[in-house]
Amino acid sequence: MSTTGTEVLNDLIEINNDRIAGFEKAIADINDENIDLKTLFQGYAEQSRKNSQELAALVGSVDEVETGNSVSGTLHRAWIDVKALFGGSDRESILSEAERGEDAIKKAYRDALASGGLPANALDTVSSQASDINSAHDQIKALRDTAKL
Question: pTM, whole model, 2 decimals?
Answer without folding.
Answer: 0.84
